[in-house]
Automatic annotation (TrEMBL), chain B:
UniProt key word Signal: yes
Signal peptide range: 1-23
Domain of life of the organism encoding this protein: Bacteria
Protein name stated in the entry: Uncharacterized protein
Keywords: Signal
Organism: Sphingomonas liriopis
PROSITE patterns the record matches: PROKAR_LIPOPROTEIN (PS51257)
Length: 388, 198
């Protein structure tokens, strides 16, 4: 939702900024009403559908239920929008490797695991969740419903990376439809407002944007397409639009009194660390070499940690061009040299070397894998490769 | 919106392939060796099956007993280098990984896993055990897997047998809901897969 919202706001902002009034007035936070009940037939209908969807999601195997991770994400939401507001939200972390977050009119919020991989700090997570909450608070779902539109905002983040592998769950929405720029702007403004009221720096929302665009471009280039084809297809006018968007969010942030607190980079990294190998594995299996390589590069800005090196090695080995296999072997070796790589690094190294016809070094690495993980699920077939 | 958006693609699919697909379904008789997936691969079923007219891909074909949602035996007959396992949902936005002549046997389960993850939009696809096996007289692989389709709660189990032969991928998969159906038709499916010859 956010991305669609951000894009809409961005498009709207382009026109405005172009006219020379980039600084938008940020409306004050509306008073919050707890335990709101739907008031008319449209709204009751929208809630009924949302309630049914929530029942299904609640029982879905795709929901990540780890208490520590849920407590962390929920904590960020509560610190962003405030304790009283966050009580009205049920938050579900959904295991889908795409960048998205959604909000339904009954207070069901989702954030997808692909977003957790791509965000960098508590403030950025707060920006995403706060924007979603803004739609809830302003009851945009109802307005959507009245406009005979989906009422769900599932297109959202995924649509930015629609060129991406990660166009998951787009089927549920069934296509792109016109969106309401005024809503986007309203949710955007209230999202920035939440951030400003929290102790997180309010410019975080703008920071997410460039990386998203960069990844979408990298995906397109990786698939031998022009990066700008996608913009012509409906969403973005061009790159300057993105620039205008960043300007617009930043100027809104600058206008607000900011607590100037920590963005919570370390806390975010620590909370995500246990999940990082799984999130990376999901990503590299999407057959999106360009986007994944870009993402890994972004994640490795502070240095190539072992999980990142291993994921990069796996990514190259999966693509499997002869030069990729050489690169992959190098990355596995780097990961191994760091001393904290898992047994799978030896497996990958061995298989990459085996495909490069370096049979003896390959067997040595595979033997090491079997020594370290004798009960691996593929131990018997690896043993036949060693013996062959 | 949601209903309308669901209805249109469904209607299109029904128009495009529903009728011809149903018309193309055919009984596979027991006890006769039969070529599958438009390839040189043959199998000898000892019980009756139904061959679906709708093919998952150019060099693929599906057999079933009760419908492909309940038991699905799919043959991939000699997928060439550079081709995906089955038809892509969208070559532009969701391209599938492709077969390579230099693939190792251990890459076969990974290819199926990644293809399913992309095509079915599910991160729940996981490979269980991977073991060496003889397939159609060649050194191959036998592996198990399981997944839940997007927006579904029913876990499906599967197993695959395959090998790279002459630079092409030959693979037979059997999958069914873990609940009841998998065990019920597993023996018949294994018998067919183990009878594969080139």
């Amino acid at each position: 939702m956010i991305v669609r919202r951000l894009m809409a706001a961005m498009l709207a902002a382009t026109a405005v900024a172009g006219a020379g009034s980039a600084a938008e007035k940020v409306p004050p936070l509306p008073p919050y009403v707890a335990a709101y009940e739907p008031t008319n037939v449209d709204e009751r209908g929208a809630w009924m559908i949302a309630d049914e969807d929530e029942r299904r999601l609640r029982d879905s195997a795709d929901v990540m239920r780890d208490p520590a991770l849920n407590a962390f994400v929920r904590g960020v939401l509560c610190r962003t929008v405030g304790e009283d507001r966050c009580k009205g939200v049920r938050l579900y972390i959904v295991h889908v490797p795409a960048f998205n977050a959604t909000m339904r009119p009954n207070g069901m919020m989702t954030i997808w695991s692909g977003a957790l991989l791509r965000l960098r700090s508590e403030a950025e997570l707060g920006a995403v969740l706060g924007h979603e909450f803004g739609h809830f608070e302003l009851r945009h779902g109802l307005a959507d419903f009245r406009n005979r539109r989906s009422g769900t905002d599932l297109m959202a983040w995924a649509s930015v990376l629609v060129a991406n592998s990660a166009a998951f769950q787009v089927d549920m929405v069934g296509g792109f439809y016109a969106f309401d720029r005024a809503q986007e702007k309203a949710a955007d403004m209230i999202g920035v407002r939440y951030l400003a009221a929290s102790h997180y720096p309010s410019h975080a929302a703008a920071d997410i944007w460039d990386r998203m665009m960069g990844e979408a471009d990298a995906t397109a280039i990786g698939r031998h397409r022009k990066p700008d084809q996608r913009y012509a297809a409906g969403f973005f006018a061009s790159h300057p639009t993105n620039l205008a968007r960043a300007t617009y969010l930043r100027s809104a942030a600058a206008e607000l009194p900011d607590a100037d607190g920590s963005a919570g980079v370390d806390g975010y990294r620590a909370a995500i660390a246990p999940w990082l190998p799984m999130l990376l594995d999901d990503q590299i299996r999407l057959n999106d070499f360009g986007g994944s390589e870009y993402l890994l590069g972004q994640l490795a800005v502070g240095g190539w940690a072992t999980p990142l090196l291993f994921a990069r090695a796996e990514l190259y080995r999966m693509r499997g061009h002869p030069r990729d296999l050489v690169s992959a072997a190098g990355f596995y070796q780097e990961a191994i040299a760091r001393g904290d790589a898992g047994a799978e690094a030896y497996r990958g190294l061995g298989l990459a070397l085996m495909r490069s016809q370096q049979v003896e070094p390959a067997k040595t690495a595979l033997r090491e894998y079997l020594r370290r993980k004798p009960d691996a699920n593929d131990a018997s077939i690896i043993a036949t490769l060693v013996a062959s | 919106m949601r209903l309308r958006s669901l209805f249109l693609p469904l209607a299109a699919v029904a128009l495009a392939c529903g009728v011809p697909a149903a018309a193309g379904n055919k009984l596979v008789v027991a006890g006769q060796r039969i070529a599958v997936a438009k390839s040189a691969m043959t199998v000898l079923p000892t019980s009756e099956w139904n061959r679906l007219g709708a093919r998952p891909g150019r060099a693929a074909e599906t057999w079933t007993l009760d419908g492909d949602a309940l038991n699905d035996l799919t043959f991939y007959g000699g997928i060439e280098s550079g081709r995906p396992l089955f038809r892509e949902v969208s070559r532009k936005t969701k391209p599938l990984p492709t077969v390579s002549t230099t693939m190792l046997v251990t890459d076969i389960p990974a290819l199926l896993e990644n293809s399913y993850r992309i095509a079915l939009g599910t991160a729940s696809m996981t490979i269980g055990t991977i073991e060496p096996a003889t397939f159609a007289g060649a050194k191959g692989v036998h592996f198990t897997y399981s997944f839940v389709r997007q927006d579904d709660t029913l876990r499906r189990r599967g197993e695959g047998r395959g090998a790279m032969i002459g630079g092409r991928l030959y693979l037979i998969t059997y999958e069914a809901p873990a609940l009841y159906y998998y065990d019920r038709s597993a023996a018949a499916a294994r018998q067919v897969a183990e009878s594969a010859q080139l």
